[in-house]
Amino acid sequence: MALTIMMMMEIDRAIILAAGSSSRLGRPKALIQVGEITLIEMIASRLEEVGLSVTIVTRKELADRIRLLLPEHHVVVNLEPEKGRTGSVQCGLESVGKIPVLIVPIDRPGFSVQTLHKLCHSEVTACPVKDGKGGHPLALSIEDSNNILNENPNQPLRSLISPSRIEVDDPYLHLNIDMEEDVEHLLKVVDDL
Questions:
Q1: Residue of 57, 135, 148, 188 with fewest CB within 10 Å of its CB?
Q2: Domains and CATH numbers, the chain
Q3: Using N-to-C axis directions, what is the helix angle for 39-49 and 60-69, rounded to 10°?
Q4: pTM given for the model
Q5: What is residue 78's three-state secondary structure?
C-alpha cells in the first residue's frame, strides 16, 4: 500500500497590498485611523500575532509615512501601481523570493486570527469562504507565485489562480473598504474583528 504525503506550505510571510490609489475613498486606505492606530498598523499587528513576517507593497507617495509607522517591516514601492493588484503582488513576490506567502489586501480587514492559522497551514493556494462567497487573505503556493511572476501585471489575479476554498466563520470576512460608509462600518465593528 503506497503512502501519499501532502506537504503543508507552512507560510511564515505575509505581503500587505497597499498601493492602490483609493480614488473612491479619496484618501489612503492604509492611513485610515482605527482608534489609536492606522489600518495598516492594525493589519500588520494581526499578522504578527500568528508569527508572520510582514512585507508591505505601497505606492511611492505613501512609502515614507508607512516606514515611519512600521519601521520594523520591509516596505516595497510599486512604481506602477496603476497597473493593478497583480503588479503589486509581483512586486511583493520579487522582494520576498520564491516562497509560499499570504497576500493581504489593505481594504479587506475582516479576517480573524483563526482564519490566518487555517490559511498558513493550507496544502495549496487557498482563500477563506463565508456564505458561499470567497474572501481574503489569499494563501499562495510557490507554484502559483511563480506563475503570477511570469504574467502581465495588468492581468486580474482571479484569472491566474484557482484557490481552494476554506470555509470560515468570520462575520466580517466580506468587509471591503472602498467608500466612507465602509470606513464607518469598520469603526463600528473593529472591536469584533
A1: 188
A2: 13-192 (3.90.550.10)
A3: 60
A4: 0.93
A5: coil
